[in-house]
């Protein structure tokens, strides 16, 4: 079932207020000049890891070989996020402009936009056409549509799908910047990251850095959902307290008892996390991640039940190519599910704690790392509650069935 989506800026918006056909910025920049702007502006990836864009651009630009590719990754497999769909549907010019700039920066021969949202694919096809007059495109741009999936947006899965294979991760190394599409160096960058590149070129590095913090510059798109409220998409400057964002969304933060941070990838955080500033470093110090900028607010939900639901989702959505995903994720999901129905044992809890720590860094994709973050955060913040679920019925868990079809998914029909 779709939900109405509130869209709005906090303070001075750039992505949300950008004119679709606004001034694109200098059209005669060289590749090295574009990379210098990305570095001076301090642009970091908005897809999850927050990796510096200039480093990725230089890696592809300097990789050996006569052919290079760039891919705008808009596969939004994170259930709690809606930002990429918004940009591709409502600000496609900004994404395409950023893609063209990135292609010029690395001397690419061809570019792709990679999506799983049918509405976004239709919008891009209509906007791009064969030779779009309103976007200065130096190279051909193709649209690759795939079925949605949590691991489908992982960078090696993106490359594999563009090459005609399944949208599943591969063993690393090599990374796409080394061997990507058709074995050539390939830049895979989130669509919001590319839109930010277009803004940095338009505004100039100094003006771009006028918002945010020295280590997390500019603004980012945050998706807020949960706590019985309609979801919202907001553009916020890095560094503002999470409480300010939550209060703008809900009117008050008083009823928030915890949250899932970074979408599903950052695990569970207690209500005290509302006082954290929204930067990559602050969330990392809290044992979490800013990730894709999605936050699921909890209002009285049992953390054990929430963890069980997220783990069930991971168990269904993992690539099923590696032992850690096939057996580890399944084992974690099973114990958490049993905890919600009073059938788990003390031995199960010990295994859960052991499995959670052992999964980190295993497998081809980041799903085991996300499971580790989930289990680790549950024990770190709610150990007594976990133990209390052994042999005791939890009324809050009993009221909600654990299912892989998560209720925390943000649905948006949009345009």
What can be said about this structure in brief?
With 415 residues, the chain is an alpha/beta fold.
Structural class: alpha/beta
Distance between the termini: 16 Å
CATH class of the domain at 26-208: Alpha Beta
- Quote the CATH topology of the domain at 26-208: Rossmann fold
Subunit organisation of the chains: single chain
Mean pLDDT: 90
Strand percent estimate: 5-15%
Alpha plus pi helix count: 15
Protein name: NADH-ubiquinone oxidoreductase-F iron-sulfur binding region domain-containing protein
Keywords: 4Fe-4S, Iron, Iron-sulfur, Metal-binding
Family: Belongs to the complex I 51 kDa subunit family.
InterPro entries: Nuo51_FMN-bd, Nuo51_FMN-bd_sf, Nuop51_4Fe4S-bd, Nuop51_4Fe4S-bd_sf
Description of the molecule:
By secondary structure, the protein is α/β, with parallel strands linked by helices. Among the domains are: 26-208, NADH-ubiquinone oxidoreductase 51kDa subunit (Rossmann fold, 3-Layer(aba) Sandwich), CATH 3.40.50.11540; 303-398, de novo design (two linked rop proteins), CATH 1.20.1440. Helix content is 40%, strand content 13%. It is built from 15 helices and ten strands. It has helices spanning 31-41, 53-62, 83-90, 92-106, 118-128, 155-162, 191-203, 205-208, 242-250, 280-285, 303-317, 323-340, 346-358, 367-388, 395-398; strands spanning 6-9, 69-74, 110-115, 141-145, 186-190, 219-226, 229-237, 258-261, 268-270, 294-298. Strands 1-7-6-10-8-9 form a six-stranded mixed beta sheet. A hairpin with a 2-residue loop joins β6 and β7 (229-237). α1 packs across α4 (92-106), α4 (92-106) crosses α7 (191-203) and α13 packs antiparallel against α14. The longest helix has 22 residues, at 367-388. The chain is globular.
